[in-house]
Design brief:
Strand content: under 5%
Radius of gyration: 14 Å
Number of strands: 0
Helix content: 55-70%
Number of domains: 1
Distance between the termini: 12 Å
Structural class: mainly alpha
Length: about 140
């Protein structure tokens, strides 16, 4: 079984997906990015975090295309792009972008759960599932 299939199965068994749409979006993104030269566990975590709705899935997909167009071999451009992407976004979205940045900056680590305290109640499941997914992905 391929590593990406193991990821999807492990995240499903860990009840990490907040909806069936989240799961479907993640599988689609993973199928698109798994052979990119800059694919890492950390990028997989970012894809999971972005895939909870169509808008953020689209933003992630667009960023991946920009990386490909640049001939990127790592994800450093994603860190550069964070500031423009977060301008005009609500606090909850900025916190999720911060979480994704931390995935990239600190490979093999999961951000502290204290970030969940800053999320509004309806956003906590999204952040919590991203943290749980990060821990699972690091074990695979």
């Amino acid at each position: 079984m391929a590593w990406t299939d193991n990821v999807v199965n492990a995240l499903h068994q860990g009840d990490c997906f907040v909806s069936s749409v989240h799961r479907a979006n993640f599988i689609q993104l993973l199928d698109e990015i798994k052979y990119y030269p800059f694919f890492t566990r950390e990028l997989c975590k970012c894809a999971f975090t972005a895939s909870w709705d169509q808008e953020h899935t689209g933003i992630f997909r667009q960023t991946m295309q920009e990386l490909l167009d640049r001939g990127a071999t790592d994800c450093s451009y994603m860190l550069e792009k964070k500031l423009p992407l977060t301008q005009g976004r609500n606090l909850n979205e900025r916190i999720l972008y911060d979480m994704s940045s931390d995935f990239l900056k600190y490979p093999g680590q999961t951000p502290d759960e204290s970030c969940l305290i800053r999320l509004s109640r309806s956003w906590v499941p999204i952040g919590d599932s991203a943290l749980a997914a990060s821990e699972i992905i690091d074990t695979l």
